[in-house]
Structure formats: structure tokens, C-alpha cells
Design a protein that fits this description.
Layout: E1 10-14, H1 18-30, E2 34-38, H2 41-50, E3 55-59, H3 67-106, H4 112-115, E4 127-132, H5 138-144, E5 149-153, H6 157-167, H7 204-210, H8 215-241, H9 245-261, H10 265-279, H11 288-310, H12 332-348, H13 351-362, H14 366-380, H15 384-396
Parallel strand pairs: 1-2, 1-3, 3-4, 4-5
Length: 398
């Protein structure tokens, strides 16, 4: 699939689930897109008002503000801009007539600078919903809310790229001889010592394919998912005891989404069954027996998955970089500047800039090469907390 027409486009990803964020980001940045992250619908609306994006990928179920509401607010804001633009155009036309009459009196016909004001138009950014395939009616609801299209979860890279090609307006490119930007093909899966050939509860080949073969990131996400699953199970148990069915729905939906993207098939199926049981009874409480049965199925699937993940060892917060004080030999003033640069890039989620920082350090002395490897490893794993901690260490040691 040739992505040359939209290569480098800025994508706003609105998604609250950390694992889903990292999977989507790996797919998009691996194909050359620039990604900005918003953690809920309100952050997405705010980002649109302050930045320019070629497209928005909008999750539906999120805290603070859901995707439908966010899409409607974005469209309402765009209509306000359009009305303001129309008013300005009317005023400009009146001014243009007056200016034209004046220039004719003066014998001048050069109106190009002034008439350029008439070309201003309010933007209408494409919004693409990210919805669960099994949820009937989600696509229709997305269109009613003002979205342009949708992609299903778990994310299929080919479907995602096809939808982006459909909706993003290509940028004009003066250099027509530029080589085509092809969608990266997943490397042949050769599972190294970080992952066994098989891992009960996961389809490793499918998960690695979705992550463009990034084994280090996949392993980290598996470890993170095991921890978040256990936490989600406890939250669901508490919610059932309190008859808090919206929270049961939210937790089951979150587990299902992460499990789908990581190819944890059994947990995905069990979470989906619990979600549907609650979602399909919006006006009445579901049968407590049915609810407990569905919960126990999910709990059993999570127990099996967690026991399996424990066999690969480690934790999601493990240091993925070389040990030792990697800042040795770097002058204090350089540490301060480097800390600020790393922190800013991490806060923006700019992995390209972080890799550029690592490349700069790699070209210098031995101690800086060690720090380069650490920054590069943290960036590869999308470990923003680790990068923030590294920046804090550089500041404190300056």
C-alpha cells in the first residue's frame, strides 16, 4: 500500500487506554506519520482548537468525555469558525469593492494582496472512529455525531491505512520523483529469548505482526497487561457487589480492547461476553447469576494468562537499558540542557526527536554512547515515565 500521498501527516490519536495508545502509535509512527496523543475526548477537543491535524482517530468509550460528544463539539466549533469566516468574507467583499473603486480612480488594478483574504475557509478535519466490530450500530452513531468513517478494534493496520488514505487530503509535493512510502511489512517472526515460541493466552505471531515485529515493546505490553488485568478484575468484583453496572461495563470494555490488540484471545472473548451481558440490558439489571458466571469465566481466563506471563519473568517497569551511571563524564551544564531536551520530547511524545537525541549522543564519547543506548531503548519501548525519570536524574546530578 503506497502511503506517499499522505506521508508525514499529523494524526491526533484520542484514546484513554495506555496499551491501545502504544499499539496504535507503533503502527502509525512505523508508517511515517506524526502522532499527537489525547487521553480523552475533552483533551481531543482542546488539541483540535490549538493545533492542526490531517486526521483524528477517535476512540468511543472514554472517561471525562466520550468520542461521540467530542466529535459533536469539534463539528460545532468548526461551524462557528465557518460562520466567522463567512462574516469576514462579506466584510472583505465590501472593502474590496471600495478598494477597487479607489484603485480605478488612481489607475491601478493590483488587487492580489487584498483579494487573497477571500480564500480563507474554516477547516473540517476528518474524524475516524475506532469502534469494536461486534457492536452493532456504532458506525451509524459515529456518522450521526459528525465522524467521517470508522476502523474496527483490534486495529488492523491495512484497514487503518486504507481509511487514512481515503480521508486525508494529500499535501502538494513539488518533488514528484520522491520514492514511494510503502507500508512497512511485518518482519518474519523469529521469537528471541525475550519471548518463548508460544505463550499460553496469546497468539504471539498475530500480536507481533500488529506491532511491526517490535518484540521488546510487545513483551513490555504483555507484562503491563497482566498487571492491569488483575486490577481490572478487582474493580469489576467491587462494581458487581455495589451493583455499579456502568463501571462493570467500562472495565470489561477496557480489558477487551487491550486483549484484542495484544492477541490475548481467551481474555478478549471472556471480557466481550461480560461487556455484552451488561450493555444489552441498559434498562434493567442483568441476572446476578448470569453476571457472576460471566465474571468467573473472565477471572479464570485472566488467572491462566497471568500464570503464563509469570513464566517470562520481569515486570513492566524493568529497566530496558544498560546499568550504571550513564551520565558520567557529561558536564553539569550539558546535563541540564540534555534533561530539558529529553523532558520536552517525552512530554510531546516525540519519538523521532528522542531518537535524534540518542543519535547525537552516540556520535560522542563512550559515556554519552551509553546514555544514547538508554534513551533509544526507552523511546523504543514508549516508556515516557522512564524518560521523565531519566531527565529528573540528569537534573539532580547537574
Amino acid at each position: 500500500m503506497d502511503l506517499t500521498p499522505i506521508a508525514g501527516a499529523r494524526i491526533l490519536l484520542v484514546e484513554d487506554n495506555e496499551i491501545n495508545q502504544q499499539v496504535a502509535r507503533e503502527i502509525l509512527e512505523g508508517a511515517g506519520f506524526t502522532v499527537t496523543l489525547a487521553n480523552n475526548g475533552q483533551e481531543g477537543v482542546d488539541a483540535v482548537k490549538t493545533g492542526q491535524y490531517a486526521a483524528i482517530l477517535m476512540d468511543i468509550q472514554m472517561p471525562v468525555m466520550d468520542g461521540y460528544t467530542a466529535a459533536r463539539e469539534i463539528r460545532e466549533w468548526e461551524e462557528e469558525l465557518k460562520a466567522q469566516s463567512s462574516k469576514q468574507k462579506e466584510n472583505s467583499e465590501e472593502q474590496l469593492k471600495a478598494q477597487s473603486a479607489k484603485q480605478k480612480e488612481e489607475g491601478s488594478d493590483d488587487l492580489s494582496a487584498f483579494s487573497s483574504q477571500l480564500s480563507a475557509r474554516a477547516p473540517r478535519v476528518p474524524i475516524i472512529a475506532m469502534t469494536a466490530h461486534a457492536m452493532a450500530g456504532d458506525a451509524e452513531k459515529s456518522l450521526v455525531a459528525g465522524m467521517n468513517g470508522h476502523v474496527t478494534k483490534p486495529i488492523d493496520p491495512d484497514q487503518l491505512f486504507a481509511e487514512l488514505l481515503k480521508w486525508i487530503v494529500p499535501s502538494p509535493r513539488p518533488d514528484e520523483d520522491r520514492p514511494a512510502t510503502e507500508v512497512p511489512q511485518p518482519e518474519v517472526v523469529s521469537i528471541d529469548t525475550d519471548l518463548p515460541e508460544t505463550l499460553t493466552g496469546f497468539d504471539l505471531a498475530e500480536g507481533l505482526s500488529r506491532l511491526q515485529g517490535n518484540r521488546q515493546l510487545y513483551r513490555k505490553l504483555i507484562l503491563t497487561f497482566a498487571v492491569s488485568c488483575r486490577d481490572g478484575i478487582e474493580r469489576i468484583k467491587t462494581a458487581i457487589a455495589k451493583a455499579n453496572y456502568p463501571d462493570v461495563l467500562q472495565q470489561a470494555h477496557s480489558i477487551k480492547g487491550s486483549a484484542g490488540n495484544l492477541a490475548a484471545k481467551a481474555v478478549q472473548r471472556a471480557a466481550m461476553a461480560l461487556e455484552h451481558l451488561v450493555k444489552n440490558n441498559p434498562d434493567e439489571a442483568p441476572s446476578l447469576d448470569a453476571l457472576n458466571t460471566a465474571f468467573e469465566e473472565l477471572n479464570r481466563a485472566v488467572d491462566i494468562l497471568c500464570a503464563s506471563v509469570a513464566t517470562i519473568g520481569g515486570s513492566p517497569d524493568e529497566d530496558v537499558s544498560p546499568e550504571g551511571d550513564t551520565a558520567d563524564g557529561i558536564p553539569p551544564e550539558d546535563r541540564k540542557a540534555l534533561a530539558a531536551r529529553v523532558r520536552e520530547a517525552a512530554e510531546m511524545g516525540d519519538m523521532t526527536e528522542l531518537q535524534a537525541i540518542a543519535a547525537d549522543l552516540d556520535s560522542q564519547s563512550g559515556s554519552k554512547q551509553s546514555l544514547s543506548r538508554k534513551i533509544s531503548a526507552l523511546a523504543d519501548a514508549f516508556d515516557l515515565d522512564g524518560l521523565g525519570a531519566l531527565a529528573a536524574d540528569l537534573d539532580s546530578s547537574a
